[in-house]
Amino acid sequence: MALVVQKYGGSSLESAERIRAVAERIVATKKAGNDVVVVCSAMGDTTDELLDLAAQVNPVPPAREMDMLLTAGERISNALVAMAVASLGGEAQSFTGSQAGVLTTERHGNARIVDVTPGRVTDALAQGKICIVAGFQGVNKETRDVTTLGRGGSDTTAVALAAALKADVCEIYSDVDGVYTADPRIVPDAQKLDKLSFEEMLELAASGSKILVLRSVEYARAWGVPMRVRSSYSNDPGTLVAGSMEDIPVEEAVLTGVATDQSEAKITILGVKDVPGEAAKVFRALADAEINIDMVLQNVSAIADNTTDITFTCPRAAGPEALELLSKLKAEGGWENVLYDDQIGKVSLVGAGMKSHPGVTADFSEALRDKNINIEMFTTSEIRLTAVIREADLAEAARAIHDKFQLGGDEVATVYAGTGR
Amino acid sequence: MALVVQKYGGSSLESAERIRAVAERIVATKKAGNDVVVVCSAMGDTTDELLDLAAQVNPVPPAREMDMLLTAGERISNALVAMAVASLGGEAQSFTGSQAGVLTTERHGNARIVDVTPGRVTDALAQGKICIVAGFQGVNKETRDVTTLGRGGSDTTAVALAAALKADVCEIYSDVDGVYTADPRIVPDAQKLDKLSFEEMLELAASGSKILVLRSVEYARAWGVPMRVRSSYSNDPGTLVAGSMEDIPVEEAVLTGVATDQSEAKITILGVKDVPGEAAKVFRALADAEINIDMVLQNVSAIADNTTDITFTCPRAAGPEALELLSKLKAEGGWENVLYDDQIGKVSLVGAGMKSHPGVTADFSEALRDKNINIEMFTTSEIRLTAVIREADLAEAARAIHDKFQLGGDEVATVYAGTGR
């Protein structure tokens, strides 16, 4: 008998019909002899509808009240799933994040889990009950206020609960049936992976793959919780994310896949004095404004005037704020100019096999050259290559790299409708 | 400076626009120098929509999960009102029933408040904050499960909080601007009352007036909390419900108004043996099924066979269950027959002045006789007369009695659109 944590995304719960289908899967898992804990996102568009209402009553709603508002969405889906399980003869009990012992920092809207004390869940499991826990939410231990975990928070709830309960697996259900070698909507012959390591999944998530939220994979890796990505529309076993890259024998290490990202913008500062501390000023200003930067590139100094250019990427949503901030610092820093470009795209190749494949960088560059695609920035990690190119070239670049490294299969991948949360 | 508790019903909160209007009233009350605690119902049709979803996933949803589901509605309106108050510069903080210390019995769906420990609300008030409390919900102290208070629960929350906080007044806002001498939709010249006693309001509520829920008035009377019924659409001072009938000088005691009720059904058991304990069997069976009975009438025994007939009324919603129950007992009790009638209506005249008005019963009966309306059952209390008649005659009966006792005014009453919760 195993302890299984299952997380269902909003698209899997978008209607009463879908909720009944999810309940059937939950009850079947229980009847197969497992203990089952379920984590639910809000139904379909509920969160967007609540955000819309909030915007109508207050353009800048207080974060504490926003959390109180948004957590209602998960309470609704949670209670409905518990009811649906009960209608199939399962003994279900729902829990809010607070009732399930999800304790967080006090940062409303983007809290972090600091501890999980699931005593009530453990008791209910011992009584043979199926436990349904509201995702995305917790409670601040000091103030007893309700908090939310930010984007993808339900995945994080599921992994954290799985870790606290020492679950055998944390299954993440959405409308895709696994992790693919590329986004099948862009690369039609993309193949589903049976298994990949935490490190590879982390690199894919950091490179734009939306299938799992980075934070939940970090948590799963830290606590050694195997994750399984599955579709709530099929019985396909999906993709297992588990184990360390270090444990993969060299001869089995492969290239995992291609990821694309069009959520970033590029900012270039021209004519920065090439003396110690100048670059730090830039990044301190951005950090103080809580703007995350991703890739950074600093060219060698121009001999003529001893200045350099700094280029970095940041989330496109934060781009205008970053530009405004740096434009104000321009005179102070004596910079020549600050340039902004939000028409960029990032294409990455990820895989533990990269270490043992000589010439990967050359093949990657040549694949883009053959399509006449210019590389504007280029970075690498131990198991990843990333190029910044024009956004309009992104799909073609992904297909070219996928082909070059023979990641495709003979079959065209199945793509399900809808998008997960 | 006064401490004012304001309760807003669902129709007052049915849209972002209405929520902003409510927020303006709240902030104005605070600016006038009062401490303000606000209790919110769920927005407009939210509760019905949630009930509909529940019915789709489980025709007989578990009561605990139903409470978890329904309380989401008040959390949503609560957070939105707090945001709207903040957007007007007010310092607002929202509280769930649990956070506000509303402790209840464990009976899901119809819990009773056993204690209110509003320590967090008191602290927030001391900091000058406007406190927004989710109505209709509490928490069971033993199991820490969320409970709901049943129909009109938000009114009860408001009165209980007002009592615990020793508030100066509990204002109940909906889409009607006070308590009238009759339902203005039935009796066009019905007049708004400036003030009435708790006892009179209790009798009106028990006789079918829907403006205040019986339980909330009982609570207010027990704790001596003055209630004021007001409209969220106007600045009319509304109707004050306060004080005991005993304190009204005889010369000022008047007839308060006419109430109608078409929510009941009538059941008659024919041929019940007229020996001690036979009637008790009937009422014990109904009590065990948690069916409330209202009026009871037992005719004198027929000399011929020493049997009697028992007639009573009960909520129409429970009628079929009561009929089935009694039909099963028919053979056992040796009864002749059980008759069911759900086409009845109740018309009542209420007022402390009844005690000092001789001939009220005669005038009441004659008013109905003059319209050729037959009285099927008749009961009285110290300050109330009630007749059961045909449902189809109800409106005409109300107008006739209202006229007979000259309760009307020269003006036609204002009727606002919509219905409160």
Automatic annotation (TrEMBL), chains A, B:
Name the CDD domains for this protein.
AAK_AKii-LysC-BS, ACT_AKii-LysC-BS-like_1, ACT_AKii-LysC-BS-like_2
Q: Would the keyword Nucleotide-binding be found if you checked this record's keyword annotation? A: yes
Give me the residues that bind ATP, please.
K7, Y8, G9, G10, Y180, R185
Q: Which GO terms describe its biological process?
A: diaminopimelate biosynthetic process; homoserine biosynthetic process; lysine biosynthetic process via diaminopimelate; threonine biosynthetic process
Name the GO cellular-component terms.
Answer: cytosol
Record PROSITE patterns: ACT (PS51671), ASPARTOKINASE (PS00324)
Under the heading InterPro entries, the entry gives: AceGlu_kinase-like_sf, ACT-like_dom_sf, ACT_Aspartokinase, ACT_dom, AKii-LysC-BS, Asp/Glu/Uridylate_kinase, Asp_kin_monofn, Asp_kinase
Q: Which residues bind substrate?
A: T47, E74
Q: What does this protein do?
A: Catalyzes the phosphorylation of the beta-carboxyl group of aspartic acid with ATP to yield 4-phospho-L-aspartate, which is involved in the branched biosynthetic pathway leading to the biosynthesis of amino acids lysine, threonine, isoleucine and methionine.
Catalytic activity, reaction form: L-aspartate + ATP = 4-phospho-L-aspartate + ADP
Domain ACT, first and last residues per copy: 267-346, 349-421
Protein name (database record): Aspartokinase
**What does the record give as EC number?**
2.7.2.4
Sorted alphabetically, which Pfam families does this protein's record hold? AA_kinase, ACT_9
Q: Which gene encodes it?
A: lysC
Enumerate the UniProt keywords alphabetically.
Amino-acid biosynthesis, ATP-binding, Diaminopimelate biosynthesis, Kinase, Lysine biosynthesis, Nucleotide-binding, Repeat, Transferase
Phylogenetic classification of the source organism: Bacteria, Bacillati, Actinomycetota, Actinomycetes, Mycobacteriales
Q: Which SUPFAM superfamilies match?
A: ACT-like, Carbamate kinase-like
The record's similarity note reads: Belongs to the aspartokinase family.
Named in its record, the pathway it takes part in is: Amino-acid biosynthesis; L-lysine biosynthesis via DAP pathway; (S)-tetrahydrodipicolinate from L-aspartate: step 1/4; Amino-acid biosynthesis; L-methionine biosynthesis via de novo pathway; L-homoserine from L-aspartate: step 1/3; Amino-acid biosynthesis; L-threonine biosynthesis; L-threonine from L-aspartate: step 1/5
Task: Enumerate the transmembrane spans.
Answer: none
Which Gene3D superfamilies does this UniProt record tie to the protein?
A: 3.30.70.260, Acetylglutamate kinase-like
- Annotated Gene Ontology MF terms? aspartate kinase activity; ATP binding
PANTHER family found in the cross-reference section: ASPARTATE KINASE, ASPARTOKINASE
